[in-house]
Amino acid sequence: MAEVKKIAVIAGDGIGPEVVAEAEKVLKKTEELFGYQFELEHGLFGGIAIDEKGTPLPQETLDLCKKADAVLLGAVGGPKWDNNSKELRPETGLLGIRKALGLFSNIRPAVVFDCLKDASTLKPEVLEGTDLIVIRELTGGIYFGEKFRRDTENGQEAVDTCVYNVTEVERIVRQGFEVARTRRKKLASVDKANVLETSRLWRETVNRIAPEYPDVEVEHVLVDNCAMQLLRRPSSFDVIVTENMFGDILSDEAAMLTGSIGMLQSASMGEGSFGLYEPVHGSAPDIAGQGIANPIATILSVALMFRLTFGYAEAADVIERAVKNVLDAGHRTGDIAVDKSKSIGTVAMGELIVNAMAR
Ligand code: NAI
Ligand code: MG
């Protein structure tokens, strides 16, 4: 019997619980197929935690995550909490959990499924062969810098500060090189070194470390140029490493190459194998409760967990192959369907994938 693995499951708000339920079915199926043992413990997080516990990130949820081997997260947020004060916003919990768990990198693969090339707004020949990973720094930069308002003679002024220290840059850049090494050995480091001091430190750090990875080819790309090249030549990218805000934007752009944000999995990692796995998308309040959300991003997040945290590569292959087979057979949720009238719901998609899973 395999060792018991503890997974903290945090469904969150909106479509979070709907898509996480399907991912849990996939986990159960791998127990059947491979004899794995997962101990799932559920915690409150985000808007629902604000309603029930008065804080987006209750201590007991954080404790649950800390004693787990991995965390599976749905999504948080929604219009109900949008006007709350900062401490009582779901997104504050999201930033807080990453910080508290020491998660400094966000890993987002963007792989174009051949049979979904028609669901993207880009031409199929541009998308052909696209298989890239965006690695985004998560704990520094402008999202965490000092922010405040002040009154001036010209009215109110708002200030956000962007801070990076060399240790923060070095550990994420090293992860970029390491991941590139396991793939096509190409690293695009994205910055705005022509304007920003933090970017100049970033670029210096990349250049200092690069000689330790002679097998990896490094390209420096300015962020605005990267935004363009992702649309012009996406298949030429292998691993992109960048700071927090640039990575937030570029990874959403990369998401669109695949046709839908409902297809994209992600991992947030620190040192070691612990990771938090979640779909890239948010709580999608516009479709929540309708049973039509695409569960594939969350299901593929489980595959990523198997690869990066548990080393269950064979089971990860089984999940990814099942997703591919179901898509190849023509099944689509609304977000990836060309003919929306023939689309299927969240539960139906989850069940098709579970049934397609075989060793
Ligand atoms: P979103 O990703 O929730 O939705 C954007 C659009 O994509 C919507 O039209 C939605 O219906 C669609 N969509 C997203 N996931 C889908 C899925 N699985 N299947 C089918 N369609 C899907 O982003 P939005 O609207 O900007 O944010 C909504 C809420 O989610 C906000 O409160 C935001 O703060 C929060 N959010 C939370 C995140 C997280 O928990 N990690 C990440 C991004 C946003
Ligand atoms: Mg985002």
TrEMBL record:
Residues that, per the record, bind Mg(2+): 224, 248, 252
Binding sites annotated in the UniProt record for NAD(+): 78-91, 282-294
Binding annotation for substrate: 98, 108, 136, 224
Subcellular location: Cytoplasm
Biological processes, Gene Ontology terms: L-leucine biosynthetic process
EC number: 1.1.1.85
Catalytic activity: (2R,3S)-3-isopropylmalate + NAD(+) = 4-methyl-2-oxopentanoate + CO2 + NADH
Pfam families assigned: Iso_dh (PF00180)
InterPro entries associated with the record: IsoCit/isopropylmalate_DH_CS, IsoPropMal-DH-like_dom, Isopropylmalate_DH
Cofactor detail note: Binds 1 Mg(2+) or Mn(2+) ion per subunit.
PROSITE patterns: IDH_IMDH (PS00470)
Gene Ontology cellular component annotations, sorted alphabetically: cytosol
Domain Isopropylmalate dehydrogenase-like: 6-353
Cofactor(s) the protein requires to work: Mg(2+); Mn(2+)
Membrane as UniProt keyword: no
Major location (coarse): cytoplasm
Site keyed Important for catalysis: positions: 143, 192
NCBIfam families: leuB
Function, in words: Catalyzes the oxidation of 3-carboxy-2-hydroxy-4-methylpentanoate (3-isopropylmalate) to 3-carboxy-4-methyl-2-oxopentanoate. The product decarboxylates to 4-methyl-2 oxopentanoate.
Family listed: Belongs to the isocitrate and isopropylmalate dehydrogenases family. LeuB type 1 subfamily.
Protein name per its UniProtKB record: 3-isopropylmalate dehydrogenase
Upper lineage: Bacteria, Bacillati, Bacillota, Bacilli, Bacillales
Underlying gene: leuB
